[in-house]
Amino acid sequence: MKKLILIITLNFVISWCYSQEKSTHSYDSIRNIYMGLPKNDVKAFSHLNKMISQAKKEKNYQQLTRAYTDAVYHSKSHKIEYADSAIDASIISKNKYIIANSYTLKGSIYYFSYRRYQKALDQYLQAYEYAKSVEDLYLQNKIKYHIAVVKSYLGFSEAQGLFKECADYFHSGIKRSTHPNDVYNHKKGYLNSLHQLAILYRNSGNFPKSDSLIVLGLNETSSSKDFDIERAYFYKCQGISLYNKKNYEEANEYLNKALPEIKKANDFTWESTIHYYLGKIAFAQNEEDKAISHLKDVDSLFVQNKFLLPETRNAYEILIDSYRKEKDIEKELYYTNQLLKLDSLYSVDYRNISSVIHKKYDTEVLISQKINLERDKERFRGWIWILGAISIILSGGLFYYIRKQKRLNKRYKELSETLKGHVGKPIIEQAFTENNS
User: Fold this and answer.
1) Which residues contact 293 (CB under 8 A, 6 or more apart)?
2) Helix 329-349 to helix 117-131 angle, to the nearest 10 degrees?
3) Are residues 90 and 138 both part of a single domain?
């Protein structure tokens, strides 16, 4: 009897394992169809919806989480909704590793797609709470890195310590790892941590420390094509450092070396920053038209993405001053409005904005200038109307005068023709002829 029960149990376990393997293979088969499609390609959803339906039917919440995660990648306009669905499915799965990754995913959407730092931080902190219960140091340090990035942008001083911890962990992980993928992931984490530390040291005025990390980053990425974007970030840092040293030619060279890869990665934050510094360099070299062109690129990126780093805010102050000198009220008013929009966005996340950037124009001054510019613009429009009315009156008078002159000329020609017919005749004969005609 015991032997029979054992055999039945073993058969059940084997059948269950086989069904699970078959089910997983089924999900992988569906997933392999759309995985080659590019980001935001909605064609993936004809297959993704099948995977979601199958996972719901089978109550396979791990696969459902994975399907919603893929939906985030391929969706154009519903990324947050799919991320929320991924979180819900992961919580039902009760797998803390998957839950941590789902919260990290939502934080990354707020960070990369919307630049809503406070919302991103809230999600990353949730993710870290779950990650602490998982024996996966890589996951914990990956989330810690994301937290540090957001805290750095928000101006929290503890970001530096977090980046140091991440850099140490990822650097030691490069040596510990044996699988190429693990080595790659740890090195990427290490380089990104160095990059963020270089920015923090520069912003705090510790330029020697920042420069040493830039050199280290460039050396670490010099011989590998796997880290093109990381190398571009260090080129960008080097360009800004050289600008601060007034070495404009070399600064221009490094910034232009960084720009193509950063544009390719669609990192609009650093793309706009590079255009800002290229504009500042052009101004320093008395190339004003070129400078204005770069600063207009900064504005274009702001219009598209609704975000700029605080250090680039000065671009608008320069544009406002430039068009004020040219007495171009329309453009001065436009860039004043743009700066007010930017400051209103900063007020959401950058609570200590005054400590982050130097502002020539604060909100009160900008609003006052805007009112004056709009008043000047209305006065200008009033004069346009007056001049237009005068122009219409003068045009009417001129038209009447020309028409009158044409009539007089016509009558004069008719009279001349009449007189030509009577040349040489006595006046009495002419009169007699006219009376008899």
Assistant:
1) 279
2) 20
3) yes
Tell me the DSSP string of 305-353: HS---GGGTHHHHHHHHHHHHTT-HHHHHHHHHHHHHHHHHHHHH-TTH
402 phi/psi in degrees, rounded to 5 = -65, -40
Handedness of CA 195, 198, 202, 208 (dihedral sign): negative
Residue 171 and residue 148 share a domain: no
Q: Among the three residues 156, 186, 204, which one is the final residue of a domain in this structure?
A: 156
Q: Are residues 228 and 195 in the same domain?
A: yes
pLDDT in tens, 204-218: 999 999 999 999 999
pLDDT above 90 (res 35): no
Of 211, 232, 266, which residue is a domain's last? Answer: 266
| CB neighbourhood size of 144 (10 A) | 21
- Number of domains comprising the chain: 3
Residues whose CB is less than 8 angstroms from the CB of residue 86 and which lie 6 or more positions away in sequence, other chains included: 65, 68, 69, 71, 72, 102, 105, 106
Integer Cα distance of 170 and 57 in angstroms = 40
Question: Is there a single domain that holds both residue 46 and residue 135?
Answer: yes
- The answer to whether position 24 is within a domain reads no
Quick one: average pLDDT of 141-152? Answer: 95
Whether 205 is in a domain gets the answer yes
Q: Which residues, 6 or more positions from 311, have their beta carbon under 8 angstroms from its beta carbon? A: 203, 273, 276, 357
Q: Taking the CA atoms of the chain, what radius of gyration do you get in angstroms?
A: 36
- 56 and 146 assigned to the same domain: yes
CATH of the domain at 71: 1.25.40
- Per-residue pLDDT tens over the stretch 227-264: 999 999 999 999 999 999 999 999 999 999 999 999 99
Query: 162 and 138, same structural domain?
Result: no
How far apart, in whole angstroms, are the C-alpha atoms of residue 280 and residue 317? Answer: 12
Q: Check if the beta carbon of residue 124 is closer than 8 Å to that of residue 143.
A: yes
**Residue 345 to residue 353: CA distance in whole angstroms:** 11
Q: Is residue 422 part of a domain?
A: yes
Q: Please give the residue range of the domain that contains residue 169.
A: 157-266
∠ CA 430-433-437, nearest 5°, is 140
CB 193 within 8 A of CB 145: yes
pLDDT one-digit tens code per residue, 375-414: 655 555 555 556 666 667 666 666 666 776 777 677 766 6
In this prediction the pTM is: 0.76
